[in-house]
């Protein structure tokens, strides 16, 4: 298989010290390759969000290595890491996290403008990204005037704008109705099909079925991994 876009090697994350020590991740190794959507499942507190924030450079491991597109995230300065987050890594949150005072296009253009590209180019790229997720006609609308599904599409456009190749999504459908949630997963899937790597944290087997494989966490370790297809989950979710 081609080189991984995301690779975690023996990653441990310990919060707190002494009696308050919590081992959120215990020596996890994990990779996501171009074209691949990987679902991460597991009970509450098993370390799913910690894995995602470390993969996205939002949190640092206590031990182990994290590389994105071949760059060692742990060795970067905070500024360099922030730059990697803007250029290579897109993050989609359950709560959308859009800026209410900015239009859809401005929200999507913001990371590109922060990257120092011209305002016009950033705006053009934002409009293209909004078209890609099917809401090019809503570019000038403010988040408060959009439905939850439309807001999440804006969040996905913001996560993929500028050709970012690692898309990390933490329960991105949580606040959406079933049909709209499926549509959001279809968009993530489509982005991976064109060469990005995606990591999707989800509680729902139905959503994990969009992934190429599923990694199960428990108490900060990988306890199981599906083979080539997670569709078996649909028939036996209770067994997991
Ligand atoms: N900042 C923190 N300080 C202390 N403990 C933390 C912190 N963040 C996470 N933890 C602990 O680390 C463990 C893993 O948490 P994490 O949020 O990664 O789990 P999760 O699988 O995403 O859970 P959920 O499905 O409920 O979101 C939990 O025991 C949690 O309480």
UniProtKB/TrEMBL annotation:
A GO MF term: transmembrane transporter activity
Keyword entries, A-Z: ATP-binding, Nucleotide-binding, Transport
Keyword Cell division applies: no
Protein's recorded name: ABC transporter ATP-binding protein
GO cellular component: membrane protein complex; plasma membrane
Residues making up the signal peptide according to the UniProt record: none
Organism: Nocardioides caeni
InterPro entries the UniProt entry points to: AAA+_ATPase (IPR003593), ABC_transporter-like_ATP-bd (IPR003439), ABC_transporter-like_CS (IPR017871), ABC_transpr_LolD-like (IPR015854), MacB-like_ATP-bd (IPR017911), P-loop_NTPase (IPR027417)
Domain ABC transporter: 6-235
């Amino acid at each position: 298989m081609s080189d991984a876009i995301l690779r975690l090697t023996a990653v441990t994350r310990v919060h707190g010290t002494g009696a308050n020590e919590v081992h959120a991740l215990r020596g996890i190794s994990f990779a996501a390759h171009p074209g691949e959507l990987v679902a991460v499942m597991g009970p509450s507190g098993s370390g799913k969000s910690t894995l995602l924030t470390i993969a996205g450079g939002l949190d640092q491991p206590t031990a182990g290595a994290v590389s994105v597109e071949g760059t060692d995230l742990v060795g970067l300065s905070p500024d360099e890491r922030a730059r990697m987050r803007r250029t290579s890594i897109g993050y989609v949150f359950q709560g959308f996290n859009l800026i209410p005072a900015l239009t859809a296009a401005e929200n999507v253009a913001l990371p590109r403008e922060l990257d120092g590209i011209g305002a016009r180019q950033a705006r053009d790229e934002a409009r293209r990204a909004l078209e890609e997720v099917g809401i090019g006609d809503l570019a000038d609308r403010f988040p408060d005037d959009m439905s939850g599904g439309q807001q999440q599409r804006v969040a996905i456009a913001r996560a993929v704008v500028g050709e970012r190749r690692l898309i990390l999504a933490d329960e991105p459908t949580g606040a959406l109705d079933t049909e709209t949630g499926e549509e959001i997963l279809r968009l993530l899937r489509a982005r991976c099909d064109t060469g990005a790597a995606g990591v999707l944290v989800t509680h729902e087997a139905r959503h994990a079925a969009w992934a190429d494989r599923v990694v199960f966490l428990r108490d900060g370790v990988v306890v199981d991994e599906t083979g080539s297809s997670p569709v078996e989950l649909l028939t036996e979710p209770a067994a997991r």
